[in-house]
Amino acid sequence: MRISEVSKRYGRGPLVLDRVTLDIAPGSFVCLLGASGCGKSTLLNLIAGLDTPSSGHIDRPSEGTAVMFQESSLMPWLSARRNVELALRLRGVPRTERRSTALELLDSVNLAEAADKRPHELSGGMRQRVALARALAQDKPVLLMDEPFAALDAITRDLLHDELERVWRATGRTIVFVTHNVREAARLGERIVLLGSRPGRVVQEWRTGMTSKRGIGAGGIEALAAEITTRLRTEIRRNAA
């Protein structure tokens, strides 16, 4: 997937994104990091095709993309399984296959035992797992995630980091993950792209060469997070000046 010189402006307002260019390799895990208001979510919406660039071009897979947002947005009257089945139905999966496929997807996020529970019976982390299973049900090569764990407590978020990394390695999907949390980016991304603000543009990248499971306490992660934090603070001070 290639993002070529993409800029975005709403009406006569200020430029939100300024000539962003990124090449995203198939199967990679890219974190888009930056302070609030730097255009991360705008860029994700452009990649998803939910909005159009003011200039520039985005080459995305012909199969399209799946999107997971901060809110799980599950249908409250449907069970976890039926929420996933809904995505399968919209994809055109035959009725006879939907139940078993939905259960397999819920099992892939370690939630098969909660298949018959409705969203109000699930914790916030469990609801996000259902949302992830539903996104995977769309069977798109690219998964776009807009701060999906931002509203969760630190322990639940860390557990979901493990789940997401496991799913990513098992499925080989390309993941573009938006966050303003430096440690989250250092924990998850094999490539971290820092966006500056006013307007949003790529100011620095880091490649972690992630080849094995990593936790926040793993060697090098804290040092990377500290380095990124220093660079981010420089950008925030520059924009505040």
From TrEMBL:
Say yes or no: keyword Transport present.
yes
GO MF:
ATP binding; ATP hydrolysis activity
Domain (ABC transporter): give its ranges.
1-222
Q: Does the keyword Nucleotide-binding apply?
A: yes
Under SMART domains, the record lists: AAA
Q: Which UniProt keywords apply?
A: ATP-binding, Nucleotide-binding, Transport
Q: What is this protein called?
A: ABC transporter ATP-binding protein
